[in-house]
Amino acid sequence: MLEHEYAVAVEQRQEQWWSIFRGTNGLRTTIAFWPGLAQQCIGLKLFRTFGTYFFQQAGVSQPFTVKCITLSIQIATVLVNIVLVDNFGRRPLACWAVTISWVACCVVGVLGVTPDNQAKTYVFVLFACFWNIGMMTCGTVATTFNGEISSQLLRPYTAAFAVGITCVLGVIMDVFVLYMVNANQWNWGLKISWFYAGIGFPAMVGMWLLIPESKGRSTAELDELFERKIKPWRFSQAETATERLVKSKE
Fold first, then answer.
1. d(CA 222, CA 83)
2. Of 1, 14, 83, 118, which residue is 20 to 30 A from 202 by alpha carbon distance?
C-alpha cells in the first residue's frame, strides 16, 4: 500500500490535465461520463424540461398532474437509491436502470403508432413512470461514479470533464427536444420515444460493457484493477492485493 501511495505521489508531479485521455485514464474518464451521457440519451430533458407539454401533446387530459406524479417518482427513486447503491451495487443498478428506460422508450414508441383510446393513455402513463425510475437511478449512479472511478491524482479534471460533457449534451438536447415536442414544429408526439430508443441503444450497450462495480473498493484497489486491465464486468469477482493481504492476516 505504501509503495502504491509513493508511486502515485511521484506520478502526480508528472501528470497534466490532458492525461485523462491517455491509457487506462482514458477508459476511466469514459466510464465517469458515460452514465450521465446515457441519462441524457434516454430522455432526461424530455421529462425534466418539457414534461408537462409532452404529456399534453400526447393526449393526457391532466398533463400537470401526471408531471407531478413523475416528479414525485423521481424524488422517491433518488431517496431509495441512497440505500440501494451501497447494498445492491453500482453496476447492476446503473445497467438495469438504463435497460428499463430503453424498453419503456420502445413501448411508448409503439403506443405512438396505435389508435388513441383511454387504455393507451393509462399504459403510456405507466411506462412513463418506469421510464423515470430508470432515468433517475442512472443519474444517481452517475454522480457516484464522478467521485469514485477516476484516479486520485486526476480526479478534479476527470470529474469536471464528465460533468462538462453531460452539460454540453444537455444544451443540444434542449434545442432538439423543443422542436420535437412543439406542435407548430416537428410535432412528433409519442413518436419522440423512437428517437430516444435510437440514441439510447448504444448508450445502453455501453453501460453493460463499460461500467464496473466499484462498491467497497478503495482507490488503491481500483487503481490496481484498471492497471491489470480487468474487464469492467469482472471487477466484482477480481481479487486485489489488498484483499489477499487481509486474508493472509486473518
1. 22
2. 83
DSSP 57-114: HTT-S-HHHHHHHHHHHHHHHHHHHHHHHHHT-HHHHHHHHHHHHHHHHHHHHHHTTS
Nearest residue to 102 via CA among 182, 207, 233:
207
Q: Is residue 179 part of a domain?
A: yes
- Residues found in the chain: 250
The residue type of 133 is: I
In a domain, 45, yes or no: yes
Angle between helices 23-41 and 118-148 (to 10 degrees): 160
Grid cell listed for 182: 412543439
Full residue range of the structural domain in which residue 96 is found = 25-218
> Structurally, how many domains does the chain consist of?
1
C-alpha distances in angstroms, 241 versus 11, 87, 149?
A: 20, 23, 18
Q: What is the pTM of this model?
A: 0.88
**pLDDT tens-digit map of 167-222:** 999 999 999 999 999 988 999 989 899 999 999 999 999 999 999 999 888 888 99
Cell of 62: 391532466
